[in-house]
Amino acid sequence: MSRRGRTAALPDGPHQRPQVLEEDGLVVRHQDAQGRVASYDFGVLPVPRAFQRSLAVLYAAKCAPGGGWDSVETSEAHWYLVRPFTEFLAGLDDVPQDVDRLTTAHWSAWRLSLPPRANGYSKYASIAGLLKMDPRLTQPVREAMATRFVWQPGREQAYGPEEFKEIRVAARRTFRSALLRIRENTDRLAAWRAGAIEPGSREWLVGEAVDVLARTGDVPLYEWGRRVRRRYRPALGGDSAQHTWKRLFLSRKETAALAVLIAAELGLNSTPISEMPVPETLPGTAEAGMPVYRLRLEKRRRAGHRGRFESRNLTDSGADSSGRIISEALEATAHARAVLALLGADIDRLLVWHQTTEHEGQAYRRAVRVGQFGFGVDERAGADWARSVGLSGSPLKRIRKTVNVLHRREPGQNTQDTHDSVYVLPEPQVQQAAVPVIADGALDAVAAAHRTVFAARLTEKSGSGERETATAGCADYEHSPFGPPGQSCAASFLLCTACPNARVTPAHHPRLAHLHQALGTLRGVVEPAVWDADWADAHARLTDLRDRVGKPVWDAALASVSGTDRDVIDQLLHGDYDL
Fold it and tell me: Contact at 8 Å (CB) between 375 and 352?
């Protein structure tokens, strides 16, 4: 009895979606938007045939396009929750024959059998959500399902400073070694193609083999097995991955190390990193020697909700800048993406790794694959890399919490409330650090910190219902943190940059850049005490904004300041501006 078929990328791509419910109505076939496929046989579940068929219909509805389960990972996770539920029902004296025969006694018994932990809550919420889709489910059972499941969330803690440093060093060592290897062979390939290597020499044979590798994804091999052709084997040094395909491509573990470095820089979960498309380079920035990358991020758990999609700009201004890891990731995966383009693969992913053979790659059942290439990472890949360098467990989740709670100290694809309540407040390091702050007056310290940090939200465009102010858009004019709720905000427009209700789009950049410049000019013509009291906090917040968007973007904004922008800022600084 097999629970499901293998997961693989289909040659017809993710745009053709097949029939979900197959054959006798007991097998659900799920093909997701990434091209992965999984089959679930409800005929093996230990409940009556009518109940099996009802569950299959509900499952098929969730797996169908628009049903809510956008990935095979999601449907697979729910499958591992459905089966224990049916096994529990099968052990009862009065086994329900179908969904409409399920009673509150059945559901309460199931509820009491679950541990009051995250795993128990996942089973409870998953099964309840699935069964509620069936209109035949009785109202008393629906009311029982609405009862709150009380559970104690896990205490996943952030890494301490030394642990965090150790993991970053290990990841950097793994990825840096791979990058240098790829650079060396890229230079060798360029020299061979330019005719700069003596024909027939050992180095020439290596260059020829690397040229084949760059065009096909592998060095010249015999048709049987994975044996390098005798002509090239002595020059390459052997048949191992290090001597063959690793010359131009990352391995799965090396890609996991790269993902750890990206998570340590951006504070993202493994899924957004795994599914991140190749970043765009803003025009003119690479030519200026300081590329600015626009990252397109998606948090699938927010499907159908505002904030599912996000973009971030990162500038590569040097070895210590946040954008440097993106430059290196693009360099390390360039050859893989070139081969995929030759193969006609229509998959836009930053993280691409090579696997020795297509057959061996089947072990990574959640990975999207095209031929010998896989895409993205998951917790298992992170754990495999960690073990290879003497660490325990995948660091990706804890790295994200560490970065967002202790380093960035702001939400990472979460609401502020979730960030504070789920990530910050339970963290022991935050609690320990808060003790002296509370003793000295925590509220004053927090208020002082917020005055100099840009708190408005950066967005690509204005949302509906927003009101324009002198410096930004306002999403909630009557619930300002600087005044009583329910009343129109009466704070200075200079405080918009300190307000979480404010929205700053690229259209606001020129005016804010001009304001920042004007405040800097004021510093030289007024008394230092006056400037510190009236303008220093606003100037600091704008400096923070400049650092976030990057110098090239900021310089471009300064170059596009309009006469209207100058008039508004002049009136604002003289206290004459009004809506």
Answer: yes
Query: Tens of pLDDT along 81-127?
Result: 888 899 999 888 889 999 999 999 898 888 888 877 767 777 888 88
pLDDT in tens, 233-269: 898 998 888 999 999 999 999 999 999 898 888 877 7
Contact 552, 560 (CB under 8 A): no
Q: Which of 303, 226, 268 is nearest to 66 (CA)?
A: 303
pLDDT score of 304: 47
Query: What is the CB neighbour count within 10 angstroms for residue 561?
Result: 18
Give all strands of the β-sheet with 21-22 in edge-to-edge order: 21-22, 27-31, 37-41
Q: What angle do CA 352, 356, 361 make, to 5 degrees?
A: 70
Q: Indicate whether 510 pLDDT > 90.
A: yes
H or E element: which one contains 370?
strand 368-370
233, 239 Cβ separation under 8 angstroms: yes
Strand pairing class (373-375; 368-370): antiparallel
Q: Is the dihedral of CA 427, 429, 430, 434 positive or negative?
A: positive
Residues shown for the chain: 579
- Integer Cα distance of 516 and 86 in angstroms: 63
Nearest of 551, 4, 44 to residue 289 by alpha carbon: 551
Residue owning tokens 């405080």 = 495
Report phi then psi at 476, rounded to 5.
-155, 85
Quickly count: other Cβ atoms within 10 Å of residue 51's Cβ.
23
Whether the CA torsion 496, 498, 503, 509 is positive or negative: it is positive
* Res 544: pLDDT: 87
- What is the layout of strands, in order, in the sheet containing 309-315? 280-281, 292-298, 309-315
Q: Which of 515, 517, 516, 532 lies closest to 570 in space, CA to CA?
A: 515
* Spatial contact of 35 and 9, defined as CB atoms under 8 Å apart: yes
In 3D space, the residue among 453, 540, 452, 538 whose CA is nearest the CA of residue 495 turns out to be: 538
The DSSP code sequence of 21-75 is EETTTTEEEEE-TTSBEEEEEGGGSSS-HHHHHHHHHHHHHHHSTTSS--SHHHH
> Whole-angstrom distance between the N-terminal and C-terminal Cα of the chain?
70
Which of 467, 473, 476 is CA-nearest to residue 497?
A: 473
- DSSP string over 289-321: T--EEEEEEE-GGGTTSTTSEEEEEEE--STTS
Q: Mean pLDDT across the stretch 137-150?
A: 84
Contact 97, 49 (CB under 8 A): no
